[in-house]
């Protein structure tokens, strides 16, 4: 399958993207997410020299955080690398996209260098990647595509900061703990100090901060915050104090408890997650509530929606380091078309199985290739062929692969558009975005590109008081 050259500039999400030329025979490298500036000169973005691997959704590790010695044996994860900042292009106010190469690093068009050591080489000449046999009981469609003989093993994506209990901040936070206690001691509360200390606290620092606070003042930081603050300001501060993993667990319980299910909250937490993060979430949920997350999902949902979420919870996605083979992408595109537009009725579970098992890079290639081949955006096809909670979940899967920053920008606007503000959801989504500073910057750029206005100004127009100030501080 051959792609025409890309168009200049960044197209709006869901618009006609530029499609890349055929890569070297036998392999796609993982195409990076679209950025918010014109692409660099040279060959199309994503199909030139293989890029250094930065897991999508991975938070940059802070240099002051030191990992404790691992237990006996070897960790299955590679060591996390310090993210190197990329300078923003001179003609754009937005920084380079998360994980993308700096401008000017691509070779001239048509002059692709050979694969370097440490990257995945193409299969042996004349050898084609093995395709899944559709309908075969041993390998149902949607299972991770088989790798060709001799392909190197893929490295698992490491857990995000805050999702590994061994990630500990070896720093002295006694000053911050004392400042928080002083802000809440006696008559009145110094809300500005609470915001200043907590708005940019790193995930690995939070356990140390809470432990230090308890040791020095013999009090629970969470209990003091709950007693001294209120409303959505309190809601936001407690969400920060839980840290990313326990906040995910709290949100899942909130989505599943009581009458009815908040499927959109399940989507926010579960869709687009790495296998390592998904396993951490399930373990933490089990440890917190003494119940299996899968069992609670089964008890709350039914039929095909239940089966879709169980596919997501299986944590069986292709890793982001897995190569993206053009033959496998073309097979997925053909099968998605066969299961949707090419027939009367939709094979819903086939679509769910494909999208829940593919990596972000593979989904990105599938979405681009589908629109090139059939002249319809994959997101549009899903909206036409599905409805309700399954439609929303599948659209989020496509957006997670295509452009996480734009996905989150749209989700934030959905909390604020129309009459009234969905305040709890707005807090949860801002907190989730703010853990990764580089991603938060990209979300602000995506919001400006999509909606033509500043995200922080939009939030200020929908909130007020200390509630407004904590949301703004997290995004600044």
Characterization of the model:
It contains 19 helices and no strands. The protein is mainly alpha-helical and 476 residues long. The longest helix has 26 residues. The protein is globular, with a radius of gyration of 23 Å. The N terminus is likely disordered.
How would you sum up this structure in a few lines?
This protein has 476 residues and is mainly α. It has helices spanning 174-184, 191-198, 205-217, 221-228, 231-256, 263-270, 275-289, 293-300, 303-313, 326-339, 348-357, 360-374, 378-385, 388-402, 404-416, 423-434, 437-451, 455-462, 465-475.
- The gross shape turns out to be globular
Given as residue ranges, the uncertain stretches (5+ residues, pLDDT < 50) are 1-29, 31-35, 37-143
Helices and strands, in order, run as: HHHHHHHHHHHHHHHHHHH
Using only C-alpha atoms, the radius of gyration works out to 23 Å
What's the story with the biggest beta sheet?
Answer: none
Beta-strand residue percentage: under 5%
Number of helices: 19
Q: Round the mean pLDDT to the nearest integer and report it.
A: 78
Structural class: mainly alpha
The count of β-strands is 0
* Gap between N and C termini: 44 Å
